[in-house]
Amino acid sequence: VWVSLRRGCENLGLATEVQLRKLKSKPWACLTEMVTQLPGELQARPLAMIDLDTLPGWLFSIDARKVKEHLREK
């Protein structure tokens, strides 16, 4: 099972590029790039994905002060 890093970052109010760079430096993180084409779009685009085992480690590594204040409760 793979999870979209961009969607996770959007829901927490984090910068996807920063989180992707951080995860690439972690030996325990399993990342892949999947190419998808959304309905109505003419061009396919790559999406960074993390595996389900990496998700808890990524969430634990996030500094709560970096999450937008109104989203911290999540």
Mind explaining what this structure looks like?
This protein is 34% helix and 22% strand. The protein is α+β, with helices and mostly antiparallel strands and 74 residues long. Strands 1-3-2 form a three-stranded antiparallel beta sheet. The protein starts with a strand and ends in a 13-residue tail after the last helix.
What integer value in Å does the Rg equal?
13 Å
Output mean pLDDT: 89
Give the percentage of residues in beta strands: 15-25%
Structural class: alpha+beta
User: Helix count?
Assistant: 3
End-to-end Cα distance, whole Å, is: 22 Å
List how many beta strands DSSP finds: 3
Q: What overall form do the CA principal axes indicate?
A: globular
Task: Provide the descriptors you would attach to this structure in a database record.
74 residues, 3-stranded antiparallel β-sheet, 3 helices, 34% helix, 22% strand, globular
